[in-house]
């Protein structure tokens, strides 16, 4: 049964079917994190000043890049988070040998009664579908109300029937929590993990985005918001270390939906908007690894460029890689209908 807590206040082969074995899974738990509006240049500046101990730990103990990419067409919140969860670009793409199906969610406001499937006129599967249908406990913890679109898309009415093994129902998100205060939301996440660890969780922090819009990206206030997020991450790492159920069995994936410049991030052709970080830490992850060096045969560092999805053999690491990477780490197959990391070939060790 889902619980709702509300206060008003990561491109492989197209549509590939990847076969993973739970017996080979390096992780029992994956925490998929999005830091909304996390811009690499401001992250790097604070890292250089030793102001972000948790991010520094993710770097030294995990594998990462500060030159990952958002979606090609959009550098705004909901379209990019939908890429993370579905492994699809936003827009349909004409490509060879076959076309690439987008998720087509271009809205960035509260969805009303809409969901991903009615908008696409076809079911859009997610990382929640695969994890839940394989008997894993799932959770979504968000700090913006518009993330309800995912709960509305994968609830007991709108989720697809479970045709994988034991019947686990249509409600793909076991725990849904939304709170505009990231600290309250994060505390609830930790409480849930203590009570009954969630195998696949998606956790969203709004702080850097909200502060960037109100005070400017790179402002002193933005830097303080980034330090606040670092504090959440530090508490999370300490919690994982202290819990024998999670220690050595948990992997974190962290990326962003976009960067930002001045007070916004809407221009998808601006490198300051489409350049984002991508971190992986924990079970099954190389220490101090460069993600592009680990993936020389399947990913290409785009430097300052902005490659489209149709440029075969020239794909960067994207935030949309995260969903299928999470499933691979759990020993599960790729998201049906996905094209980003659908071969689950993004290496982290």
What would your notes on this structure say?
With 349 residues, the chain is of the alpha/beta class. It has helices spanning 40-48, 53-61, 77-86, 116-120, 127-133, 148-153, 182-195, 207-215, 220-242, 271-274, 291-294, 322-329, and strands at 4-7, 29-35, 63-69, 138-142, 175-179, 200-205, 250-255, 275-282, 289-290. The protein has twelve helices and nine strands. The chain has a nine-stranded mixed β-sheet, with helices on both faces. β4 (138-142), α6 (148-153) and β5 form a beta-alpha-beta unit. It starts with a strand and ends in a 20-residue tail after the last helix. Mean pLDDT is 94; it is low at 1-18.
Count of runs of 4 or more consecutive helical residues? 12
What is the count of structural domains?
1
CATH topology: Alkaline Phosphatase, subunit A
Overall number of strands: 9
Note the main sheet: 9 strands, mixed
Decide which structural class fits the backbone.
Answer: alpha/beta
Query: Strand order within the widest sheet?
Result: 1-5-4-6-2-7-8-3-9
Name of the CATH superfamily: Alkaline Phosphatase, subunit A
Assess the beta-strand content as a share of residues: 5-15%
Task: Write the H/E string, N to C.
Answer: EEHHEHHHEHEHEHHEHEEHH
Estimate the global geometry from the Cα principal axes.
globular
* Name of the CATH first level: Alpha Beta
Mean pLDDT: 94
Low-confidence stretches are 1-18
Question: What is the fold's blueprint, element by element?
Answer:
Elements: E1 4-7, E2 29-35, H1 40-48, H2 53-61, E3 63-69, H3 77-86, H4 116-120, H5 127-133, E4 138-142, H6 148-153, E5 175-179, H7 182-195, E6 200-205, H8 207-215, H9 220-242, E7 250-255, H10 271-274, E8 275-282, E9 289-290, H11 291-294, H12 322-329
Helix pairs in contact: 8-9
């Amino acid at each position: 049964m889902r619980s709702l807590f509300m206060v008003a206040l990561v491109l492989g082969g197209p549509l590939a079917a990847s076969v993973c074995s739970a017996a080979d899974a390096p992780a029992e738990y994956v925490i998929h994190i999005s830091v909304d509006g996390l811009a690499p240049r401001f992250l790097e500046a604070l890292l250089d000043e030793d102001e972000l101990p948790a991010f520094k730990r993710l770097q030294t103990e995990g594998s990462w890049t500060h030159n990952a990419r958002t979606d090609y067409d959009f550098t705004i919140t909901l379209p990019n988070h939908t890429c993370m969860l579905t492994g699809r670009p936003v827009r349909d793409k004409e490509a060879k040998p076959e076309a690439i199906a987008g998720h087509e969610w271009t809205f960035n406001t509260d969805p009303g009664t809409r969901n991903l499937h009615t908008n696409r006129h076809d079911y859009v599967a997610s990382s929640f579908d695969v994890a839940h249908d394989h008997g894993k406990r799932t959770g979504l913890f968000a700090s913006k109300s518009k993330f309800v679109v995912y709960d509305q898309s994968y609830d007991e009415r709108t989720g697809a029937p479970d045709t994988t093994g034991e019947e686990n129902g249509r409600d793909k998100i076991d725990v849904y929590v939304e709170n505009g205060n990231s600290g309250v939301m994060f505390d609830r996440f930790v409480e849930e993990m203590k009570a009954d660890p969630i195998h696949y969780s998606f956790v969203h922090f709004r702080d850097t985005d909200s502060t960037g819009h109100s005070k400017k990206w790179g402002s002193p206030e933005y830097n303080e918001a980034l330090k606040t997020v670092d504090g959440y991450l530090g508490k999370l790492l300490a919690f994982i270390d202290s819990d024998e159920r999670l220690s050595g069995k948990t992997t974190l994936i962290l990326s962003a939906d976009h960067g930002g410049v001045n007070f916004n991030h809407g221009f998808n052709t601006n490198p300051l908007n489409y350049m984002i970080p991508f971190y992986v830490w924990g079970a099954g992850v190389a220490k101090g690894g460069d993600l592009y060096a680990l993936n020389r045969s399947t990913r290409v560092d785009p430097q300052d460029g902005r490659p489209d999805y149709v440029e075969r053999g020239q794909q960067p690491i994207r935030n949309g890689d995260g969903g299928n990477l999470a499933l691979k780490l759990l020993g599960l197959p790729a998201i049906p209908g996905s094209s980003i990391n659908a071969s689950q070939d993004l290496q982290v060790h």
